[in-house]
Amino acid sequence: MLSKMGERTYVSPSSTSMPSARVSAVAKLPFDVPLLLIVVCLLVFGLLMVYSSSWDASILINKPTTYVFTRQLLFVLAGIAIFLFASFFDYHRYSKFLVYMMGVVVLLLIVVLLQGEVRFNSTRALFGGSIQPSELSKLGIIIYLSFWLSNKQENLKSVTLGLLPLAVILGFIAGLIFLQPDYSASATIMILGIMLFFIAGGDWKQLIVVFLIVIVVGSAVVAATSTGKARIEQYFNGLQDPVMGSYHIRRTFEAVIKGRMFGVGIGQATTKFTGLPLPHTDSIFAVIAEETGIVGSFILILLYIGMLWRGLVISKRAPDQLGSLLSFGLIAWIVMEALMNIAVIVGLIPFTGNALPLISAGGSSMVTTMAALGIVMNISHSGSIVGNNERSFAGAFVDLRGRDGRRGISSADRGPENAN
Fold it and tell me: How many angstroms separate the first and last alpha carbons of the chain?
């Protein structure tokens, strides 16, 4: 309470403890709040854009205008249920299901090659397009490699016991996906495998050799296939003159140009009704650029960058290397998919055909992405990363490998005096 002038002022102990009590309450939250907010924003915005971009797609299949949106809403609800389950399921317990999980992934990849539905010159989907095994394989391979690498620490620098088995695992899964063909998914799996191997403590000299081999062999194989050759030619033609690019890219450019700085308004885009291919799935970022402009597109990119930041912080503060590898791999996969999709729309890379995570319409992408985020949320809870003493983005990335090539962080239950 306040005293008269000239007298001492005494402050109630309860009033001084209130700020610290609030900080303590925030620090004890069982999840990563920034990551959760980012996910919610992307889901809400994704539903809004699917509703805006899917009217024509619904009509073309003789369904009500809200058909695609309603399906996407169901996929989001299913994804939220899986997210909640994964958030409270201890990520260490996945070790019991690794063999079965990879067995199912391989089986689905083989089945889709034998009996899958051909869409856009590719065989990628099962059950009316509801399931894409390539999406499940990305999630599965990250989980499997995280466990495998965390258990092979002593052999990672050995070519015969570390690098060669890793190459066989990645090559087999990526090869099955490549046969569909799905070049972007194959490349994504290879890149993620190399990144995880490096973060786990692999020899960087070996990685450089493997990376060069993958680039050379992958480029040669893609150039030898008719689909890959056509996409590369269209890409380089588009770089020289946008008018000479593929029809798909020309239409996405048209949408981006129409959007200008602030967009034409939600629901007011016209390109989605005049022949823009797949406006509610692969090309949804073009609709976003037209309706929200450069400003809205930049905000969306910032949300993905924020997701990467949180993933790196969670990886840095994970209680063990398994959690660090899982959180890094899963978030890197989601953000990589997003950046690849956006880069295609603006003509920076050849057409890939991957979805925009949490935004594009589609069940497989939504469910697997939400499952991955649920696992990351469980790791954040185990590592108790919510607090005021968060390190910087750069620090989180650089310190994932210690001086000896492995992680150099302490467990959550170790005090400062025992930290590395």
Answer: 46
